[in-house]
Amino acid sequence: MLRIELDVRPNADGWFKENFHAAELEDAGMPRFEVRQHNVLYLAEPGITRGIHAEPWDKYLSPSNGRVFAAIVDLRDGETFGRVETFELDAGQALSVPRGCGNSFCVLEPHTVYNFLVNDHWSPERVTVDLFDPELAIEWPFPRDRLSYTERDAANPSLDSVRSALV
Questions:
Q1: What secondary structure letter does DSSP report for 145?
Q2: Alpha helices for 29-158 (secondary structure H)
């Protein structure tokens, strides 16, 4: 995984950034990334939470507006399985997340716009984990009763179940 600081340049109208510049990102250590799909998610309210989802593609994540708390969980078989890294991201940061790592986020500001660039087309295949698994101990930025998440995400399996499926 790689956290990238982006150059956000204020101007008379607001700001400008090069959100994705392949050569500069490769120079910063990001593996070559061929964009196949660019998804944009508008999130109206703080506390909206999604994840933990590990799809069979690499992701490049960055807000265009607002802020998110991102929790990334390594779900690949190996010694780093279950490792959690958390970040607060605004328009000046991006994350490069390799396939097999679970992405989750919580909206911190109203009217957040989150960009997901991926290097494969969408498919339903994915590994999911419970947002509130005690083994992960993710410290979400709001109490659980202030988070808004889907019923599908609420039914995600435990980290231990995912671990058992890998064996």
A1: G
A2: 151-154
pLDDT at 167: 67
Q: In the 8-state DSSP scheme, what is residue 21?
A: -
What are the beta bridge partners of residue 8?
17
pLDDT digits (tens, 9 = 90+) for 148-159: 999 999 999 999
Q: 144-153: long-range contacts (C-beta < 8 A, 24 or more apart)?
A: 146/47, 147/47, 147/48, 147/49, 147/106, 148/45, 148/47, 148/48, 148/49, 149/48, 149/49, 149/50, 150/50, 153/49, 153/50, 153/51, 153/128
pLDDT tens digit string along 114-129? 999 999 998 989 999 9
Residue 88 · residue 67 · CB < 8 Å: yes
- Beta pairing, strands 8-11 & 2-5: unpaired
Please tell me what DSSP assigns to residue 148.
B
In the chain, what are the domains? 2-166 (2.60.120.10)
pLDDT at 13: 82
Q: State which residues of the chain have pLDDT below 50.
A: none
